[in-house]
Each structure stands twice: as structure tokens, then as C-alpha cells.
Recover the amino acids of this structure.
């Protein structure tokens, strides 16, 4: 590293915080396995940090899957939809599970284990992943990391949680509601270049869908606004990549004009420094 990094450590979920409700949206991150072979050996692990949106599963429901093994020292999560196979996997152990809290994220879990003897190790939409509960470990953490900071989840409006799904070349983008908002602005930037950042006023909708060229790859985030103007809240920054379907397409980034043609409104292509990618 050639320059100093000025970043604040993530806040941790406090031991006296209420249990995280089932269906709460969460964000997990990791560097390792995205696919395994028949022997459960990693196939071409990624070279970039990969985020994934997950949904909290109650410990009661999770314990049924794991034969009563789930205790209060664990928290469980799985894909957002019934067929979602996004997951943490081999090499992701101790990676973070975070939950949106106002305009930041709070770490609530550490990737621990998943899979059963009769089902796949990773990516089974019917088997939640188990994470060590940061709240349950708060006393140990406070004793051994005296500069750690703890917090509870705010009950007031939380930042929207943005999710993406891809079927062929069709990309669907959706986000959770923000009370009092009259609409949302979508921000996007090419992946992995991060520039230029463009914006699109989507109005009151919470889902958009478009068919994009193979090879398209973007960072995405939304910011709700009210009659008074933009709020201080941004969603998580999600990424998507439309896979190449045939060699004849070639690999290229989608252009702003192509996305605009599939949506409504006009992009402002000037850089927006308020969006942190």
C-alpha cells in the first residue's frame, strides 16, 4: 500500500441488542469458492471480493434443517428468494454478515458453516448458512479488542437494501421500501472501472427489469428522496454481470444509452462524488 487508509472500523452488534428478526435483509462478503466439483473442491475461486444479499432465517427454522444443532450463539441466513443459490462457501469462514443500520452497516455475524450430509455443501436454497453471532460474542470481543464499538439496530428508517437477479440477459433490480420516500434515484457505474457514475430518477417504483447485452457489468445503488429532496440514505452497493452467452456477442460493457433505452428517464452522466463505491 502506498497511501494511508482513513476508514472507521465496522460497528458490532451489541450483546443487549434484540434478536435480528427473520426476513431482515443482510449483506455477506467473501473471496473464495463460487463453484465446487463433484468432490466439493473449489473451482476457479474469484480474485475480487464478492458481495451477496441474504435474508435472515429464524433460529427455530434453521435448527430444523440442522437437527437441533443451532443455538443462541448462531445466526442463520440464506438467499433472498426460494430459488436463490447465493451463499458463502469454502474459504469464506469468518467473513462478515452485516445489516443496514441507518446510513451504515453493522456486523451481526461471522461465516461459520453450512450444508448437510445429504445436500450440497454450498448454494442450496433450502439450507441456510450458519454464522457465529457477533452479539453473543460481544463480551469476549470487548475483553480482547478494547477499541471495538458496539451498537444496536435502529428501529427508525433503515437504508434500502438493493438486490439483483439475472435470467439469461434479463436483469431485475429491486430494493426495499423507505418510509416517507416519494421515489428513488438509481446510481450506476461500470464494473470494475467505477466511473463514470450515472443517475436515473425511477420515481416511486421499487423494481425495474431490462434485457442487457452479454458482458454488461455494473455497480448499482439507490438513494430515496422525499418532497424536500434526497435523503441521507444510500442502499448497499450491489454488482451484477450478464454472462457471455455466445462467442459472437463478444465481451463489452453496456453503454449508458443502452440502459436508458431499456428504462424510462434520462441519465445524468456527470460524476457524483456522494456515491462511495
Amino acid at each position: 500500500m502506498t497511501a494511508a487508509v482513513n476508514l472507521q472500523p465496522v460497528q458490532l452488534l451489541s450483546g443487549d441488542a434484540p434478536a435480528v428478526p427473520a426476513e431482515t435483509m443482510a449483506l455477506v462478503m467473501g473471496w473464495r469458492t463460487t463453484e465446487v466439483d463433484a468432490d466439493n473442491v473449489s473451482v476457479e475461486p474469484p480474485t475480487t471480493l464478492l458481495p451477496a444479499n441474504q435474508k435472515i432465517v429464524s433460529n427455530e427454522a434453521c435448527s430444523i434443517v440442522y437437527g437441533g444443532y443451532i443455538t443462541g450463539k448462531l445466526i442463520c441466513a440464506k438467499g433472498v428468494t426460494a430459488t436463490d443459490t447465493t451463499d458463502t462457501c469454502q474459504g469464506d469462514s469468518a467473513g462478515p454478515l452485516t445489516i443496514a443500520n441507518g446510513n451504515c452497516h453493522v456486523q451481526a455475524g461471522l461465516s461459520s458453516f453450512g450444508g448437510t450430509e445429504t445436500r450440497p455443501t454450498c448454494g442450496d436454497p433450502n439450507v441456510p448458512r450458519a454464522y457465529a453471532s457477533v452479539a453473543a460474542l460481544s463480551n469476549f470481543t470487548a475483553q480482547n479488542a478494547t477499541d471495538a464499538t458496539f451498537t444496536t439496530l435502529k428501529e427508525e428508517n433503515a437504508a434500502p437494501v438493493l438486490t439483483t437477479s439475472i435470467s439469461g440477459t434479463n436483469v431485475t433490480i429491486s430494493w426495499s421500501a423507505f418510509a416517507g420516500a416519494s421515489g428513488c434515484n438509481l446510481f450506476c457505474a461500470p464494473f470494475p472501472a467505477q466511473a463514470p457514475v450515472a443517475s436515473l430518477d425511477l420515481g416511486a417504483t421499487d423494481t425495474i427489469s431490462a434485457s442487457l447485452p452479454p458482458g454488461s457489468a455494473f455497480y448499482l445503488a439507490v438513494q430515496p428522496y422525499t418532497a424536500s429532496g434526497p435523503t441521507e440514505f444510500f442502499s448497499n452497493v450491489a454488482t451484477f454481470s450478464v454472462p457471455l452467452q455466445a462467442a459472437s456477442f463478444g465481451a463489452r460493457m453496456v453503454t449508458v444509452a443502452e440502459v436508458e433505452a431499456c428504462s424510462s428517464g434520462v441519465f445524468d452522466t456527470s460524476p457524483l462524488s456522494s456515491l462511495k463505491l
